[in-house]
Design a protein that fits this description.
The chain is of the alpha+beta class. It has one domain. Helix content is 16%, strand content 36%. It is built from two helices and four strands, in the order βαββαβ. A four-stranded antiparallel beta sheet has the order 3-2-1-4. A hairpin with a 7-residue loop joins strand 2 and strand 3. The two termini are 21 Å apart.
């Protein structure tokens, strides 16, 4: 089953958070999170990890550059009105 019921054409929020924030490392600076909106192009079973899935996304160029330049952990969240991302 695709993550969160995501299928081709679904709109999702792409959230990139710093790995340090995920690991609970304390810092004086707030964790920088990056957010972009994307469309799911396809979802396939990830062959190299058990239970993993490969999700292909389509983003606007500015959003794609922002996400690609960010380092950290990436999460997808359904961006429908019922979801809180």
């Amino acid at each position: 089953m695709p993550p969160l019921g995501q299928a081709a054409g679904t709109r999702v929020a792409v959230l990139v958070t710093s790995s340090a924030a995920q690991a609970g490392v304390k810092s004086d600076e707030p964790a920088a999170a990056r957010r972009a909106t994307a469309s799911v192009v396809s979802v396939a079973e990830g062959g190299d990890q058990a239970g993993g899935q490969l999700v292909t996304l389509l983003l606007e160029i500015a959003s794609a550059e922002t996400v690609a330049a960010a380092s950290g952990d990436v999460s997808l969240c359904s961006s429908d009105r019922r979801s809180r991302c």
